[in-house]
Amino acid sequence: MNRFFLGGIILLLIFSLIIEEVLGATQKAIEQIKVQRIESMPDLPSPLLIRDFKKIAIDYDKFVFDFERRGVFLPLGWWDKTHYNLDSDTFGLLTFVGSKTQFDIDGKPIDGSQEGINCIAAVLSATLVGIDKSSQRGYNYVKMTQTFFNKENREYLVLNNPFTTSGKSFWYEIFPHILFYGLVYHYKDVEEMRNIMKITADRWHDAVLKLSGAGGIPNFNHTAFMFSVMEPVDNGRWTEPDAAAGVALLEYWAYKEFKDPKYLEATKRAMNFLEIIDYNPIYEVLGYFAPYVAARLNAEEGVNYPVEKFMDWVFNRESDVRPGWGMITGKWGEYTVDGLFGSITDGGGYAFSMNTFDAAFALVPVARYDLRYAKAIGKWMLHLTNNAKLFYKDCLPEENQSSYWWREEPSYVIPYEGLRKIKDGRSPFAGGDGWGKTDFSLYSGSHVGFLGSIVSKTNIEGILQIDLTKTDFFKDRFYPTYLYYNPYDADKEIIIELGDKPKDVFDLLKEEFVHRDKSGKVNITIPAKEALVVAFTPPKGKVKHQNNKVLINNIVVSYNHFSDGKDYKKSFSSFSPWILTLFLTSIGVATMYIVRKNKRRRR
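Structure (tokenized):
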């Protein structure tokens, strides 16, 4: 056979491989999954008015932690000198402005009455918006939160009060751990923080094993777990099976921190329980973390938990164990309330500020690990961020509030506990359940930094910058990653600030660079009613695909574990090295062929 003919055949084979790679790489971008009740929301909330929740969180910290402030129901915090579980003083915060249960007969705050879901949250919330709570005006508030690690009574758990026991309520006994682990992530050098995390993670690991049946799947359909006897508790009135999501989160964070595979095994056992049940288990806030844990496990551990099922629990279905509990949609009076969380049925609807802030904390990172939900989460967060203003005094008429008369706080940084659809003919109505002499809730306001650290405005009103990494704790090495959603009928150009040092801007949904080696301000166009997810990466970074992960300079920027690897776009720079080698080789072979052919003609 003529060697040039053979060379031509080889050349065609090489080009066919290249064409197959190119065609496979230029198919449709990652398809977005629609979430029914988010889809039903209007494109834009009304009235559109985005508050600066980061500033609210900073001002909240300044006001609430001023223990020298005087006035009606002030100060809101105190120094606790009982030394429960500590060798030094700690602090306490009132649960409500004018709390009815936290003062003695002399009008002094009762030491030990402070709540972990309030105090630990306040420290974490401030941390997330940039305040160093380990060294603030000479105080180490991070260390002080160790008062909630109940070791003097041998519980060895981070509980909701400094001297209490387990076995009353799963969420009150798991959520303080979640908040505390968040502090560990940010303050690993503070004495005893990691050690407490390790001790408590071991305790919850043992609880998972105790709850597990013959098949290795634990049963979380109980009210609580009593560690003193290592047995589940059923009070005969309610169960809290979404505790499985909370425990799975704790155990996975422990796995990422300590690298002990027993924690990963406990994580999977808890998630297996959620996977097999056929009812919505959400009781309070712990169930909000189920989609995040599932998406992260799928991405990082190569498993296949049903993220869509868990997202359906959170957004589309009412809870089966707490009827009416879910995400609120619609319009109350003249205000849209889409995206807030609470009861859909209580009095026609009752949204809670704490639950709303915690939902943002739990669910925003889902879009980092499962990009199919970028658009849904972007739209939901626009509505939540806009409508969360209704929890604050300055955003409703005086007659639509229960405690407008309290005027000691001029910056309006303490939210109402909740927002009712209607009360006494007024809709909506901000108030609470009556646990204080006012309904201004510190146990809710102490969570505002979760929202404030995640969202910020852009140059286009109604298009937010959403940080997908801020509440994604114990993560591997990462690049800053942001989600933007355009709710308008036309394409919009946003301005992004990159800072002084040059960066690349990488589009995760299209898997291509939109800017290279740029600093300062750059413009990016977002198509109408679409989402954009970008990572800020080092200039001239090298893209690599490995096991359905996209890496730049060997750091993962995105995951495509939910596809066969051919249904998303690749930039030419991300083609595998062997394809580039074949491409260059084919050019060389073609050149040699042409040169040899020309020489023969000259003869």
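The domain at 31-47+326-566 is CATH 2.60.40.1180 (Immunoglobulin-like). The longest strand covers residues 512-518.
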